[in-house]
């Protein structure tokens, strides 16, 4: 008896592989190896410190298996996510022993892992036939988790409502279940019921799910309320919760609050740094994102693939090729250069930094490609003026067996619209119908834009008028289509129809479309009226592109002084494209004096853009200032700047060929 008690104490103290092997040997020598108690201990210890295989061997060699031994074996498979083996052993147990509440909970976890809704319902039926197990809140939590993970929140709710006094775990599983199934409102309503009416104190996991629900809704107000609950319940130092809050504030564009929270955190891990870098990146503060990434490296925090992906997105936003190449080297050293997400971010960065060849080389080396990788290449070619190559990428994507999703389809249609090839547009429209994307609002809007840019406004109108449901994206696309064709009057009619005869409210994209249409048609008075409507009736804050179009609108009609006044009164410093629009207007109206002022400001912002030097040179040439022309041309040569040539494309047979003026590099030339 004393030997057994001593062995029990040694088993309780065992915490590594070596003493476990010695204890197993001792149990064999003492004749206790077939004892159900010691066999159960051995199974649990082997699964923890050695392998499930060793644990199974002990199980198979024990003739008399208790319920606890079965539970230990089931738990070992479940911990390794070997769901099928877990269910196989559960069925084996049913023929030998009666499962208890622990057995049932493990089996339900395996059913959830397999999405085996039928098997789970069988287990639920067994539970309902056993009153003691059915009343166990631990089993109730397992049932709620099972139904939640299988997307059956209605059945999860029925289980929950079967308990008169649900504990914190049941409440938490309901909140988490709703959040994970995309029912963010219901998740927060359950949290409110839990705290306000049931007066159950939420635990950390409950609040993480609640914060994630607020992030799904992009609700700063609700997120702030949950943050208050976090503080009141003493979780304001919990790293996991603080990381969730950082993600919430990033998604709601609350950069200042996220920054303050980040620097107040008593502890930060790589997820914290990654979340803050993503916050800056996705909210347009790419320079701050890169500064933070550099500080992270300086502090010795090891970046993971998510951190690198976020930093590369910042490089793409900043068009910072040098920093992007440094991060590429870091990714290579860390061994995740060719991970799909990282490689895709690298491709996107190189394309946006006008280095397509580096993107092509990396794409070729990728052993695994997902639809996002293919679309990064396709969009990248279009961004770099090589939309004719985008269609080749699309063809290869389909040959590879990759199926585009709706987001990808939008980008494919956008790339094709750069070509202006009506035959290609008709083929893609047929593909959209064939693959079931025709009811997607964004795909429909892209088709309207595609037909408009391919010169077929009739097809665009036919598509628009055939739609029963039109949201703001569809209306904006049709207005933009008329604008592209210089039919400003028709664009204004569509806008008027939208405002007066539909329940749709115009957004900033709508105003971009209608202002652009007015600009292309020289409708100055109407354009100024639309801009005023945007400001006062809809109280929308103009974006840089709105100011750019307004400047272009005034500039086209010779109102250069008013255009300059608009630029100087902008709430934020004008971006290069705004100054560029004004410089172009100076050239059209031969205003050398203002052109010099505008060019000076523009070249301070973009000193390496040869196009602006050429534009100013043309202004001087029109005024016969040939010495100034000569000086500018010399400056272009000394700086090594090159003007980007416009390309034309021609379809011959089934191939599209690109060329520039005087091009002699085609293989068949000469």
How many beta-strand segments?
A: 2
Helix content range = over 70%
* Rg for CA atoms: 33 Å
**Could you state the oligomeric state of the chains shown?**
single chain
Overall mean confidence score, pLDDT = 87
Reading side by side through the largest sheet, how are the strands ordered? 1-2
Distance between the termini: 102 Å
Please characterize this protein's 3D structure.
The structure is a single chain. By secondary structure, the chain is mainly α. The longest helix is centred in the first third of the chain and has 14 residues.
Task: Write out key terms for the chains shown.
elongated, two-stranded antiparallel sheet, mainly alpha, single chain, 72% helix, 670 residues
Concise summary:
The protein is mostly helical. Helix content is 72%, strand content 1%. It has a two-stranded antiparallel sheet.
Topology:
Elements: H1 2-13, H2 17-30, H3 36-49, H4 52-60, H5 67-79, H6 83-94, H7 101-114, H8 117-128, H9 131-134, H10 137-149, H11 153-161, H12 168-180, H13 184-197, H14 204-217, H15 220-232, H16 239-251, H17 255-264, H18 270-282, H19 286-298, H20 305-318, H21 321-334, H22 340-352, H23 356-365, H24 371-383, H25 387-399, H26 406-417, H27 422-434, H28 441-453, H29 457-465, H30 472-484, H31 488-501, H32 508-521, H33 524-537, H34 544-556, H35 560-568, H36 576-588, H37 592-605, H38 610-622, H39 626-639, E1 648-652, E2 655-659
Antiparallel strand pairs: 1-2
Helix pairs in contact: 1-2, 2-3, 3-4, 3-5, 4-5, 5-6, 5-7, 6-7, 7-8, 7-10, 8-10, 10-11, 10-12, 11-12, 12-13, 12-14, 13-14, 14-15, 14-16, 15-16, 16-17, 16-18, 17-18, 18-19, 18-20, 19-20, 20-21, 20-22, 21-22, 22-23, 22-24, 23-24, 24-25, 24-26, 26-27, 26-28, 27-28, 28-29, 28-30, 29-30, ...
